[in-house]
Amino acid sequence: xxxxxxxxxxPVSGAFLADTRLSEFASQCIIIHMTIRIAVAGASGYAGxxxxxxxxAHPDVEIGALTAGGNAGSxxxxxxxxxxxxxxxxxxxxxxxxxxxxxxxxxxxxxxxSAAIAAELAPGTLxxxxxxxxxxTDPADWDRWYGGEHAxxxxxxxxxxxxxxxxxxxxxxxxxxxxxxxxxxxxxxPAVQHGLVEPEVVVVAVSGTSGAGKSLKPHLLGSEVMGxxxxxxxxxxxxHTPEITQNLSVVAGKRVAxxxxxxLAPLPRGILATCGARLTGSDDPRSVYEKAYADEPFVxxxxxxxxxxxxxxxxSNAVQLQVTVDADLGRLVVVAAVDNLTKGTAGAAVQSMNxxxxxxxxxxxxxxxxxx
Amino acid sequence: xxxxxxxxxxPVSGAFLADTRLSEFASQCIIIHMTIRIAVAGASGYAGxxxxxxxxAHPDVEIGALTAGGNAGSxxxxxxxxxxxxxxxxxxxxxxxxxxxxxxxxxxxxxxxSAAIAAELAPGTLxxxxxxxxxxTDPADWDRWYGGEHAxxxxxxxxxxxxxxxxxxxxxxxxxxxxxxxxxxxxxxPAVQHGLVEPEVVVVAVSGTSGAGKSLKPHLLGSEVMGxxxxxxxxxxxxHTPEITQNLSVVAGKRVAxxxxxxLAPLPRGILATCGARLTGSDDPRSVYEKAYADEPFVxxxxxxxxxxxxxxxxSNAVQLQVTVDADLGRLVVVAAVDNLTKGTAGAAVQSMNxxxxxxxxxxxxxxxxxx
Amino acid sequence: xxxxxxxxxxPVSGAFLADTRLSEFASQCIIIHMTIRIAVAGASGYAGxxxxxxxxAHPDVEIGALTAGGNAGSxxxxxxxxxxxxxxxxxxxxxxxxxxxxxxxxxxxxxxxSAAIAAELAPGTLxxxxxxxxxxTDPADWDRWYGGEHAxxxxxxxxxxxxxxxxxxxxxxxxxxxxxxxxxxxxxxPAVQHGLVEPEVVVVAVSGTSGAGKSLKPHLLGSEVMGxxxxxxxxxxxxHTPEITQNLSVVAGKRVAxxxxxxLAPLPRGILATCGARLTGSDDPRSVYEKAYADEPFVxxxxxxxxxxxxxxxxSNAVQLQVTVDADLGRLVVVAAVDNLTKGTAGAAVQSMNxxxxxxxxxxxxxxxxxx
Amino acid sequence: xxxxxxxxxxPVSGAFLADTRLSEFASQCIIIHMTIRIAVAGASGYAGxxxxxxxxAHPDVEIGALTAGGNAGSxxxxxxxxxxxxxxxxxxxxxxxxxxxxxxxxxxxxxxxSAAIAAELAPGTLxxxxxxxxxxTDPADWDRWYGGEHAxxxxxxxxxxxxxxxxxxxxxxxxxxxxxxxxxxxxxxPAVQHGLVEPEVVVVAVSGTSGAGKSLKPHLLGSEVMGxxxxxxxxxxxxHTPEITQNLSVVAGKRVAxxxxxxLAPLPRGILATCGARLTGSDDPRSVYEKAYADEPFVxxxxxxxxxxxxxxxxSNAVQLQVTVDADLGRLVVVAAVDNLTKGTAGAAVQSMNxxxxxxxxxxxxxxxxxx
Lengths: 372, 372, 372, 372
Description:
Chain A has two domains: 36-176 and 345-357, NAD(P)-binding Rossmann-like Domain (Rossmann fold); 179-338, 2-Layer Sandwich (Dihydrodipicolinate Reductase, domain 2). Helix content of chain A is 30%, strand content 20%. Chain A has helices at residues 4-7, 17-28, 46-55, 76-79, 96-99, 114-120, 139-145, 164-169, 179-193, 222-225, 240-252, 285-293, 342-356, and strands at 36-41, 61-68, 92-93, 104-107, 126-129, 173-175, 197-207, 230-231, 257-264, 271-279, 299-301, 319-326, 331-338. In chain A, the strands form two sheets. Chain A has a seven-stranded mixed β-sheet. A six-stranded parallel β-sheet of chain A has the order 3-2-1-4-5-6, with helices on one face. In chain A, a hairpin with a 4-residue loop joins strand 12 and strand 13 (331-338). Chain A is globular, with a radius of gyration of 20 Å. Chains A and C meet through helix 2, helix 3 and strand 2 of A and helix 2 and helix 3 of C. Chains A, B, C, D: GO terms for molecular function: N-acetyl-gamma-glutamyl-phosphate reductase activity; NAD binding; NADP+ binding. Chains A, B, C, D: Pfam families: Semialdhyde_dh, Semialdhyde_dhC_1. Chains A, B, C, D: Residues 37-169 form the Semialdehyde dehydrogenase NAD-binding domain.
């Protein structure tokens, strides 16, 4: 049984403290606190590192096993020098044995490795998969975009989608959304759900390089990335296209066609998505978006005239949105900014864990970015 | 046996020499060469600096007056430390008197200043305006997007447009296109000209910061720009929207609707434009683009599978293009990369000058970028 | 009277929770918590923004008045879009009246403005000055490097210096060190204190651009900064030279000569200082540094062979150090990394506040960086 | 009346033409020009790419064989998309057979591969080695810093060193200096040659990432490099230390001790070196440097008060210098900027070739940088 006051310990809640301080303090004296033991598989990668950065700030978590593939046997500090409190932890080999015996296991593994590991873990263990294996519902999509046999579909860790929280509340398995699908879906869901736009949307998302992970490819070298912009996976060739299509189609209740182009830009973190579609009528999109996200702790529609920047969400779990109408063309344009490693990956994983365990949804998560 | 004058004229054109060597060498033996005296107004800004960088490498040009506004009286080296051969030149006040008496005057001034200066220059002087004043044909567009009285329309310095070279050949006034319109127009012109796509196009163009000039605005500070992405002028609010619309509509012979969104990214130079539109039929866009640009010295359709990067065109006058079809959506997607200061501004100005003066079009211009 | 257990609520302490949980929980039931009301003058600048980012995560703080100069009257969100919980706060004019009535007032003002404001505040108010006004002890130094009358010397907010904590514990006024002096002093203090090196040191410190603040100067524009490196204040001309000299001379008990050169590099945050001096003997510097910083929560000597990076301390209050000996030259070389806005400014301010108020020194501060 | 062959030979040398025009024009009229056939081994790497970028602009060169190791068999355009005129060239395997039959062979190979290849080439072939194999004169240094048997010493391609041009004029083998040694040596040579400083110098050189080549190492990934600074090879551990020591000791006529620390910064190109030493007397260093470099086409002492930036020399063969005296310490401080790939590698190779072949030293080289 979990201690609400502990939620007050999270940095993000600093702003909400005043009104709740007394009740909080009173309740603190009568509850017993239990710590959640977590493990992270793939702790030497970018997603794993961001999970640990967030979990170190989580009031209810104790960090257990850290595992890796090729880096097993080395100190975490060699790979994640920014995680000082864990620098001397030695990485274990990624095996079910090493991960077993924890309340929560986060998987930050290459595609295709999650199902086998999860199958060996105790049924009661909450398994949160940051990989793609369990995101797609249609095995045909999996086969076309990733190839091979589909591992099956898990509850989808995008709580802001209609009905998602109910499913996550009872979940012991969670599929964390991809970074592009997260920002694209949140940018367009209210519009397609309320039929504001025709079911054909165009998304061009500019991303930092950490989304590609630590893979040693020439085009990811600093010398290649800095001072350059490159598009890739153009013409619907990127694996996140079917995931965005799936999300928006579910929300719309009908097939939504998605033209998606990712662009690689010279920054480590952040995605800025420009999303457009033809308006069906003259409804005011702004009021629809205001209603849709009024109660969401992490999705913020900016005041009119202010546009999102990725720097403003760096390291935070917030999504910043702005909507406008191109009157000449009768098109809706939504711009959204997210940190691909936080709300785009690790933050969504922690947010989903909080819901699944009945913790306050914002525990250990912040809406404050690190800027400049 | 080898022709010194020739290979020496334009090192950059090495690639195109072979076929023309003999005839040109012959001509060398009978012509007397006159050097062209040029002046640059706005020499301390980014466009002015790039003009001078290119003109220093131009075989037929002698650099005359350099003028500025607030920086008049100071050494060029204080503002353009990369232009060593001109470092000790002192900037004159921007006046018609200072600019008169040159064969060519390049204007790199804030919007609204070109017409008055040009009116005072000798009629025979070739005036090349890098500003927006003379780009738009419709006074109503000028009034809506820039405000005030329209200075009139000059021959448009985008030689790759159908018929443009004929107009430029006899021109004494040239309006250099905007950087976004250059890359967007070249990316979509063949498609709209041949009716491959419906007359509604979506352009999202990611740009480096030099396009904004040296203006001292907080959002252009290095601390704000680095590590961040920001959209601006969203929803058709950017002044380049009517220029792109004008270009594509002329090429298509009918109104083309343009949804244009610019995104600011952390690099000094370069624009990567992602351009899409719904296909009208099943023609093969690639062959259309191959034919359209087969003879263009500066527009390069890349081999299938290779995507443009801005680093590959840094400091060069080349445009790199790739086209593909999103079969699921029946959409054409074209990605184009350009250096906003070279082909996007100063290179187009020099290319236009070359045509207007009957010089080889590639004189002083390069298709070789500076990378990494 | 303050509540130690609350310190456990801070993210950074996640790593220290296990052993202290029970005693903490027990103690929690018997104390009364009181919140500290703070004000920030200069809230729209970089130092002010970082102060607020940290204070939002501080368990014992309530954020009161936010003031500014030219930006007074506007929403904080216009200037600090990353501070979502405070976005709608309106900035007041920076006056003593606006700042009065708070337990702590942080001053992040241009040089020369602190003394007058501080004089008008209630004597009991803790005033923490992030500016330079009260750092130098010698009025002659002030006059030479800043000019004008010296405002006097306040307790110096570098707790890691010998004896500093005792002075800070009873302080109602604190002068926060400059960013370069912080990293340079911590890198060299153990060596000069124990006479490991001759009293002439050479420091070359490479810095991100935020140290220059939001000042609108051409050389700070993104287009100028990105892709470039520039030295400035060379030859002992930088105002931080006398501060470093003062610190090291006090620690050494004799005059230490400091050759200091700052270099501006294309990143928003972070300073990497390379510090060298000739060794006096054959003592092992490493063991001296290990002892010197063994109990310091924020200064970390890295394992042999691992070198500091600024990314590893981004947004954290940690300093990462490595020491080595150049045997051929008999020189000590120390490399240190710090975030100029956190431990280099705002983090030191909060750390000093914690000490002055008897709070746990690490309250609201983290040793976890945001990387990559 | 104007001299076509001349102004056309080297646009970049426009600044130096005036005085030599007539005599050169005269010579043009009586000589038959032969084109120099060159080959580049390692054409897919950064040094190879920069060599080709410069050679494409060289008036007297024809580009022959391009070879590679692992990339043999692929199009150059896949690896060097910025070299459009050569995009369709297919890379041959790096063998003596492929490289033979050229007037000049440039070697841009990993250390240890040059000697074997060179031994198989015709004795008359000019071999310019961009690697380290033939830089060091002392086999013991080679064995200590690189290991294994010393390949021997070749004429050193730093023409600005006293006497260097005489040696290069008759050379058929050239060892191109390392990038750090180039900038460090040029920054300090006048001071040590004229005994202005004590023979112990401290160099901290901040570099872009391309100096590390295209090697696929995690710390060179864009995500790691951007937003970070890291020192490496600290304490005299970098292989360029003995080369700098060798250069300065030869110039000084006695052993000069060098404390060298390289720092990796987030930019692709450029090195900024801060170099200091204790002054021996009160001579005016500035006048010594003015004299030393008065006639050098590529080394520029900036006007007092102006400091070098790497952006100003990007893609150019120029070195920008500034000298000052720290009067408090009696130290000389010299700051120098260079492009590590141009003057730091490929530009020096071309400059050395020009001298060895009796071409104008500046042929194909520019003192104009690409900025911003």
